[in-house]
Design brief:
InterPro entries: Glutathione-S-Trfase_C-like (IPR010987), Glutathione-S-Trfase_C_sf (IPR036282), Glutathione_S-Trfase (IPR040079), Glutathione_S-Trfase_N (IPR004045), GST_C (IPR004046), Thioredoxin-like_sf (IPR036249). There is one protein chain. This protein is about 55% helix and about 10% strand. By secondary structure, the protein is an alpha+beta fold. It has two domains: about 80 residues, Glutaredoxin (3-Layer(aba) Sandwich), CATH 3.40.30; about 110 residues, Glutathione S-transferase Yfyf (Class Pi), Chain A, domain 2 (Up-down Bundle), CATH 1.20.1050.10. The structure holds glutathione.
Length: about 210
């Protein structure tokens, strides 16, 4: 059984998307980040970076003590190894999938997060920040589009944790001042993932 510390945000959905795809049993523990619940000592004991998502796996593969984990990319990688699903065993395909997973974690997610912040939440309008993050987002969507013109999914022809990490952020394109018509391969890929039964279940709370 996996305990999932969760809020319905792009980083939270990454983990429910994975868990729904694989059927691994889990219990959701909602963390209300608007009410600062991420700063409670019991949550910080699991996630010292005070951000969701985080998990506790009560049945780790080595049979030892429960394993707790934060950072969505690390969680997806851990769960892919645990289940043997959604990360290829083929060296080249796996390397490609991990490359795009890291691209999402280091670039696509953080930049779109800043874009979203300065466009939707900043208490003052900061034109330089909006321009910087919208332009960087456009660059990243172009990179994504170019890749998806070549392969069905981000790391090749199989759906993987690279797609799972990237989908919830690209799904929010309207908040990022991104016009999907400029990125037709991304639009097609989003539509395909949106129709997966696991995606529909994971987003039941949206
Ligand atoms: N790099 C982290 C980012 C997680 C993150 O930014 N979580 C946000 C919600 S999407 C959060 O918990 N924010 C609360 C806070 O910053 O206090 C990951 O991928 O897990």
């Amino acid at each position: 059984m996996i305990d999932l510390y969760y809020a319905p945000t792009p980083n939270g959905y990454k983990i429910t998307l994975f868990l729904e795809e694989t059927g691994l049993p889990y219990t959701i523990h909602p963390i209300n980040i608007s009410a600062d619940e991420q700063f409670k000592p019991e949550f910080l004991a699991i996630a010292p970076n005070n951000k969701i998502p985080a998990i506790v796996d009560h049945q780790p593969a080595d049979g030892g003590e429960p394993i707790s984990l934060f950072e969505s990319g690390a969680i997806l990688f851990y769960l892919a190894n645990k289940t043997g699903q959604l990360l290829s065993k083929d060296l080249r395909e796996r390397t490609e999938q991990l490359q795009w997973l890291f691209w999402q974690m280091a670039g696509f997610g953080p930049m779109l997060g800043q874009n979203h912040h300065f466009n939707c939440y900043a208490p003052e309008v900061v034109p330089y920040a909006i321009k910087r993050y919208v332009e960087e987002s456009q660059r990243l969507y172009k990179v994504l589009n170019t890749q998806l013109e070549k392969t069905d999914y981000l790391g090749g022809n199989e759906y993987s944790i690279a797609d799972i990490a990237t989908y919830p952020w690209a799904k929010c394109h309207e908040y990022q001042k991104i016009n999907l018509q400029d990125y037709p391969a991304v639009e097609k890929w989003l539509d395909k993932i949106k129709q997966r039964p696991a995606t529909i279940t994971a987003y039941h709370d949206a």
